[in-house]
Structures are given as structure tokens and as C-alpha cells.
């Protein structure tokens, strides 16, 4: 049977002699066919392995004697692989066809997609009331059936820590898989004025994933990557943060609201500004892959499809409590602006 191995180098296929091999035997096959030493391998069925800063939580495939069939791994399954160091990935043979190459062709051949190991932001801390207010509406009123988004406002200190103190939700239309922001420049100027009066600025973008998206195997979809990098590219703030809010099943079988923080990588922003992304996304397109207008190099292979996880840089997330006086001033300013019906601050 065939299983798929997804690593920082992309998606690769691995032929398995039978479905009852052990994890130890699987690692040997990966070493033989994918050139990753056994001692460097960390395997998991959890996709967050590829974007996590620590490998300690990923123990589901740590027992070498466990049968892969006992973990539900069968033909077509995806196993996630993290490893340290470098390896040689076999790419397609280069053939000289005599075709005249343009300057764009040459540039594309040099565009290598690699992961950004560390964020430009030290961490992000949410005001507990602001975070609760945003998720409470999505959870209690919308039941996470459709997507919802907003812009985060707060401060950035000298070490790169972002504090989020209130969230502004512009007029919008959300469906299960897409979010359309109906942005009003005049209204946003009023919000900017409120933030400036509080000594704050726009520091990031927050959005929810619907319950239906919880059945998928991606961290961010191609549509979410495009929207996140678009709003990040509007800002000159290198510490800009993107936060995803979603429901996750807990150990008791219930649902917990979960916040995850990322930055879109510097390379992702560069590619967007230079118009590398193909923005025409079709329903049949794989949501975990971002399409490029020109070929790029990923793991030694030329491709026009890039795994979205290559563009995500994990940011640590914490919480805090805003001073009461800040909340009162925020509320006072908000109620003076009659048109600002979508202003969200948890006063």
C-alpha cells in the first residue's frame, strides 16, 4: 500500500509492503527511501507537528513496536515527519529543450520556498475580556457555523511583545469556508483615532474557522493564507500577528475554544507583494496548497503548489487584563461615534 509522508519539504509517497508493519519498520523505510536518518525522525498523525516549536507533545508514534494499523494508518493515510538537519531530495532531471528562457523563468528557478524558523514577534498577549468577547459571539450566536474576523489593536513593546487590548470587527459576510470583509475606510479611520487616543495601533488580524473546517487536514486553507498575508502586507509592523480561533475536541469529548497565533513568513509577504500567488481559487482546488503563477522550488522540486504550512511561523500566546481606566475611555469614545456599530471592546 501507499502512504503519504508530509514534512517541511512537502508531500512524498512511500510504498509499504503490508499494513501490519511496526513504527520501527516504518522509520527504516523512511530512512531507506527518503534519506532521513532514523535517529532524526519524529513521526505523528497530528499535523501540528510541522509547525510546533517543541516535539514533546507528539508521542502517538513514539513506541517502535506499535503497529501502524493500530493507529488507523492505511492506504492513502498521511503521516507527518519532523526531522533535524538536511537531506538530499531527489528532483526531476534537468532536460535541455532549446527553449528560450525569459528573465521571469530564470528568477522563478531561483525562488526557493523554505520555512522561517523564528517569528519577528516575541509573543502575543490577549486581554482576557477582549478574547472572550470575540469568541463568545462566534460560539454562542453563530455556533462556529460561519467564519468571523476582525482587526486587533494594542501595543508592541521594545522586545517585540504584542499586547492585544481590543478587537474591531468590520462589516462582513461569512460562510463556512470564506470570509468577506466589507471594509469602510471612513469607519476604519474612526477606529484608528480611538486607538491613537489610547496609545494603541493596529497589531494584527483575527478570524475563526468554522466547525466544518475542523474535518480537514490543514492549519490554514489557501483562502485564509491569501487573506492573512494581504492584510499583513498592508502594515509596516514587522510584529504583525494573525490569530486563528476554532473549536477543538477535548479529552472528555467536549468542545473547547482554542486560539492559535502565527505570523505569515517574510517570504510569504514578499511573494504576495510581487504577485506570485494565483488568487483564483476554485472549489476543486486542494485547500491545503497555495497555487503560484510561476514554478518555485520546494524541497529540490519545481512546483506551482506550496503546502500552506511553509508560510506559517508560530507565535507564543498568553493573556492579560486591561486596566479599567483604558476600558472606560474606550467605551466613552465608542459611544460618541454613532456609525461605529461594529466596534468591539469588552468594557
How would you briefly describe this protein structure?
It comes from Tanacetum coccineum. With 347 residues, the chain is an alpha+beta fold. It is built from 7 helices and 17 strands.
Task: Walk me through what this model shows.
It is a single chain. This protein is α+β, with helices and mostly antiparallel strands and 347 residues long. It contains 7 helices and 17 strands. Strands 5, 6, 7, 10, 11, 12, 15, 16 and 17 form a 9-stranded mixed sheet that branches. Strands 2-1-4-3 form a 4-stranded mixed sheet, with helices on one face. A two-stranded antiparallel ribbon has the order 8-9. β13 and β14 form a beta hairpin.
Keywords:
347 residues; alpha+beta; 17 strands; globular; disordered C terminus
SSE run: EEHEEHEHEEEEHEHEEHEEEEHE
Assign a percent range to the helix content: 10-25%
Computed over alpha carbons, the radius of gyration is 22 Å
What share of residues are in beta strands?
25-35%
Which runs of at least 5 residues are low in confidence (pLDDT < 50)? Answer: 91-101, 332-347
**Spatial gap, N to C terminus:** 58 Å
Shape: globular
Secondary-structure-based class equals: alpha+beta
**Major sheet:** 9 strands, mixed
Tally of DSSP helical segments: 7
Summed over residues and divided by their number, the pLDDT gives a mean of 85
Number of strands: 17
Amino acid at each position: 500500500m501507499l502512504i503519504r509522508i508530509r514534512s517541511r519539504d512537502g508531500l512524498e509517497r512511500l510504498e509499504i509492503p503490508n499494513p501490519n508493519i511496526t513504527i520501527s519498520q516504518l522509520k527504516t523505510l523512511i530512512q531507506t527511501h527518503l534519506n532521513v536518518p532514523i535517529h532524526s525522525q519524529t513521526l505523528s498523525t497530528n499535523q501540528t507537528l510541522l509547525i510546533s516549536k517543541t516535539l514533546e507533545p507528539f508521542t502517538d508514534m513514539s513506541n517502535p513496536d506499535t503497529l501502524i494499523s493500530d493507529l488507523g494508518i492505511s492506504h492513502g493515510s498521511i503521516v507527518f515527519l519532523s526531522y533535524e538537519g538536511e537531506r538530499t531530495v531527489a528532483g526531476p532531471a534537468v532536460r535541455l529543450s532549446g527553449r528560450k528562457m525569459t528573465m521571469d523563468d530564470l528568477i522563478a528557478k531561483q525562488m526557493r520556498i523554505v520555512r522561517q524558523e523564528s517569528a519577528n514577534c516575541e509573543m502575543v498577549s490577549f486581554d482576557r475580556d477582549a478574547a472572550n468577547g470575540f469568541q463568545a459571539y462566534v460560539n454562542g450566536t453563530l455556533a462556529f457555523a460561519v467564519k468571523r474576523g476582525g482587526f486587533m489593536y494594542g501595543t508592541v513593546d521594545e522586545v517585540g511583545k504584542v499586547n492585544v487590548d481590543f478587537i474591531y470587527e468590520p462589516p462582513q459576510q461569512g460562510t463556512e469556508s470564506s470570509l468577506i470583509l466589507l471594509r469602510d475606510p471612513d469607519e476604519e479611520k474612526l477606529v484608528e483615532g480611538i486607538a491613537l487616543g489610547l496609545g494603541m495601533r493596529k497589531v494584527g488580524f483575527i478570524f475563526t474557522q468554522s466547525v466544518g473546517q475542523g474535518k480537514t487536514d490543514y492549519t490554514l486553507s489557501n483562502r485564509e493564507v491569501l487573506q492573512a498575508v494581504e492584510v499583513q502586507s498592508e502594515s509596516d509592523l514587522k510584529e504583525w500577528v494573525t490569530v486563528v480561533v476554532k473549536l477543538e475536541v477535548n479529552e472528555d469529548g467536549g468542545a473547547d475554544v482554542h486560539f492559535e497565533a502565527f505570523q505569515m513568513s517574510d517570504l510569504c509577504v514578499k511573494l504576495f507583494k510581487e504577485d506570485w500567488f494565483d488568487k483564483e481559487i476554485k472549489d476543486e482546488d486542494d485547500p491545503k496548497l497555495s497555487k503560484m503563477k510561476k514554478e518555485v522550488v520546494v524541497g529540490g522540486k519545481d512546483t506551482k503548489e506550496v503546502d500552506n504550512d511553509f508560510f506559517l511561523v508560530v507565535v507564543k500566546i498568553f493573556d492579560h487584563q486591561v486596566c479599567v481606566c483604558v476600558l472606560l475611555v474606550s467605551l466613552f469614545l465608542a459611544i460618541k461615534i454613532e456609525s461605529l456599530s461594529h466596534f468591539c471592546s469588552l468594557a
